[in-house]
Write a structure and sequence with these properties.
D-Maltodextrin-Binding Protein, domain 2; alpha/beta; elongated; 7-stranded mixed β-sheet; about 45% helix; Arc Repressor Mutant, subunit A
Length: about 300
Amino acid sequence: MLDARQLEALAAVVEHGGFGPAARALSLTLAAVSLRIKSLEDALGQRLLVRGRQVRATPAGQALLGHVKQVRLMEADLLAGLQGGAASRDAARWQSLSVAINADSVASWFLPGVAGLLQRHRLLLEIVIDDQDHTHDALKSGDVIGCVTTLGTAMRGCVAEPLGVMRYLCVAAPAVARRCRTARGAVSPHRLLAQPAVIFNRKDALQDAFLEQHFGLRQPHYPRHFAPAVEAFETAIQRGLGWGMVPEQNLAHRPGLEELLPGAAVDVVLYWQHWAHESVSAQRLTAAVKAAAREHLRPMAPAPA
C-alpha cells in the first residue's frame, strides 16, 4: 500500500520545484519532506527524483505523479457526489485539471469550446503551452491529464481521439509579399528565403514543412525572428518583419495580410490524448474538447479503404 503522505510530498517537490518550496507548501520541515521521499524510495527500491540544481522526477517518479493526479481527481469527484444537491454551488470545491496544448489551439478554439464547462462545474485549468509535436511529452511524464497533439498513436495507458485538421497559410504584409515575388507576380523561392521568417519558437517546424511541401526545399537556410506568443507573433508579421504560417481562422482578425501562395497550405492533424481511466471531470473535459474541435477544425480525411 502506498503512503498518501509520502506521495503528496513527492508531488509537492516536483510541482513546487524543490524541497524547500515543497516544505513550505505542506507546512512541514525540510527534513520531514526529505524523510518522506527517502522512505518512499526505500519502500519501492528505486530513485524517484533526480536531485540537482533543478529537481525532476525519474520515470518511476513520473508514473507515481500520474497516479497522484488521478487519485486527486477521483477524490474530488467522490466528495462532490457525497455533497450531492444539498451543497450549494458556491460551497463546491474548485477542481484543477492540467492540460498541454499548442498556443494556436488555446485561443482559437480550445478555450472558447471549454469555457462554459469550466464555469458550470467550477473547474480550474493549468495550461502547459508547447508545440503540438511535443505536448505529449507532458502527458507521458504525468504532468498533465490530456494534451492536444499530432501524435495519433495512443501512448501506454492513454487513448488518442482524432480532433480534426488545423490549416496554416503562409502570409505576409503587402510590402514583404512584393519582395518575395518576381516581376510577373510569382513567388520566387530565392526571394522568399532572402526575407526573414517570423517563427513562434525553435520547436516550430511549420515554415520548413511549407517550404518542403510546396517548393521541395529541405532544411533551407533563411533569417528568422522568434516571437513565442500568438499576439506578438502575428503582430510581427502584420508589421512587416517577415513572413510566417498563421492558422486560417486567425486571418479574419489580421486584415491586410496576403497569402504568398494562394491555395497552398500546411494541414496539421490534431488528436486529443488522455488517460484511459478518467475521472468524471476529465471525462466532461474530453467531451467538451471533442465538441469544440468538431465546430472549429476541418474534418479529417477518411482513412483509405
